[in-house]
Amino acid sequence: MKTEKRSSYEQNRRDENLFQFTRTMLAILISVGITFIIIACVSKEPLEAIFTFVTGPFSTLRRFGNVLEAAIPILFTGLAACVMFQAKQFSLIADGAFYIGGFLAALVTIYCPFQGAGATVLAILAATALGALCGVLPGFLRAKWGANEFVVSMMFNYIVIAVGQYLFMNRFRDPGSGNVATAVIPEADKLAGLIPRTKVHAGLILALIVTVLVYQFMYRSRTGFAIRMTGINPRFTGEMGFSTFGVLMLVQIIGAALGGFGGAVEVLGMYDRFQWQDTLGYGFDGMTVAILAANNPALVPLGALFLAYMRVGTEVMARTTSVPNEMIYIVQGIMMLLVTATGFLVHWRHRLLLKRSAGRQESDEGQA
Prior knowledge:
Blueprint: H1 2-42, H2 46-55, H3 61-86, H4 93-111, H5 117-134, H6 136-145, H7 149-170, H8 203-220, H9 222-232, H10 234-239, H11 244-270, H12 282-292, H13 300-320, H14 327-340, H15 346-367
Helix pairs in contact: 1-2, 1-14, 1-15, 2-13, 3-8, 3-11, 3-12, 3-13, 4-5, 4-7, 4-11, 5-11, 6-7, 6-11, 8-9, 9-11, 12-13
């Protein structure tokens, strides 16, 4: 009996994964198709624009490197969003943590008395810890008083970024620099490059390692199971012996820590100085990737690569044709509308479930 129940559960999970995959792929195809139609309407050379959009990211090694470079920060914030979404926490705290984490990582490497791998590790750990600290207040307000985590995290991001901007502009800005930037980050403290003639750096390896760790944590640990169950049935989490309050706090802290980690990796891998005067919006991009990945950490790298590919494709198209690169926001917006629409393909899902149920009923009657 237990074997039959387990087999039924695994089959239902496969059916759900098939449905989510199919719905996401159709959403992408429809949004890209609508984008092609818009390009055909606004461009004087539509075929050339579409061809450049599709093939541009692979036309040179440097452009392919741009795709990988753009995917790295989105991968971190995508993982952060996945963890929080699993517990039904729609928080943007990873965005503020990304900014302040990158800022602290730059300061640690600049003022650290020693250089090299030790300073790099120290900077990343400090940024991760500060990022985690950013998740404490939104997590507490949500867990203690049921405050809306989206609104709280968005408002708290303004505070975090404003504090970072004040310190950056008034305390740590290098007056000798021609731009608004800090002092130079020591070359020995920066992340090593991976692909010659590109800016792809060792942060890509770190991002993939973190992806594996997050997946193992979410699907191979008791705490990860409690997080997932909190998103489905918070009461069951308490019956497992976990505190719902603790789980809600934990997911915000983990999400913010991943954001801080990603900020440090981005600064130490891509910049000679810290020069962000505002948030780069990677928190919203992470939410997009998490939705595309159906909140599965293992699929986040694919979602991040796809979004980065689209970004680079639109940039190449904007430079060589008359179509503006804002076209990416049309693609992204349509995808989000379709993927998050609960009624999209729901009839196909019902038919799949009914067919499966009818097959099991016939099998049971045959055995009887």
